[in-house]
Design goal:
It is a single chain. A hairpin with a 5-residue loop joins strand 3 and strand 4. It is globular and about 40 Å long. The protein has a nine-stranded mixed β-sheet, sandwiched between helices. It has a domain of about 130 residues: Aminopeptidase. The two termini are about 15 Å apart. With about 200 residues, the protein is an alpha+beta fold.
Length: about 200
């Protein structure tokens, strides 16, 4: 499978995750730590304080390896004009047998409220269908994070169910997950997304 070197939208550039991003990523991660550990990745929720830079470097290495193995697709996301790191987006839980996958995304503190996450999720949706040839994409979010669910609705993902107590974040903090899905790209907003292979 041939993968793009970048995805370009109206305001963003999505680049495959790289350990070279560690300084930019770690700065954004630290500033967003409280929000990210609340709802984003259960594995991060176990941390009572901000993990070390070396631990987060391992996270980037693991995801860089997954990209190279075509087993997971984490992108670092940059502002197209300023080249500022503003978050990450990913296709994860990739199942080659269908194929199918899930979307994930986060925006650093100070950059939320600008529809960047929606723009990112739109690009990831097209990446999933057009590049990975997925037959199904899902967005899952904690019910206490309605902003993420709103993105799924904006992009025409169908609400399917709530999985009660489906994940554990912080100790004894169970996540009730809303499940949204798409099986094709019909009806997606008509916005330009370019896949660069240069």
């Amino acid at each position: 499978m041939k993968l793009p070197n970048s995805i370009i939208t109206e305001r963003l550039i999505l680049k495959p995750v790289s350990i070279n991003d560690i300084d930019l990523f770690y700065k954004a991660f630290k500033s967003s730590f409280e929000n990210l550990t609340q709802y984003y990745i259960p594995a991060w929720s176990r941390y009572k304080q901000i993990p070390s830079k070396n631990e987060m470097l391992e996270f980037l290495k693991e995801n860089q390896d997954k990209w190279n193995a075509q087993d997971g697709f984490l992108f670092s996301v940059f502002d197209k004009k300023t080249n500022e790191f503003i978050g990450q987006g990913e296709i994860h839980h990739f199942d080659h047998s269908v194929p199918k996958a899930r979307l994930g995304y986060w925006i650093t503190n100070g950059k939320t409220g600008n529809d960047y996450a929606t723009e990112m999720a739109h690009a990831l949706t097209l990446f999933g269908f057009d590049v990975l040839n997925c037959n199904r994409l899902e967005i899952r979010n904690d019910v206490r994070n309605p902003a993420s669910g709103a993105i799924a609705k904006k992009l025409g993902y169908k609400f399917l169910a709530i999985f009660e107590k489906n994940k554990v974040g912080k100790p004894n903090d169970f996540w009730d997950l809303e499940i949204y899905a798409r099986t094709n790209k019909e009806g997606l907003p008509d916005k330009t997304v370019e896949f660069s292979y240069d």
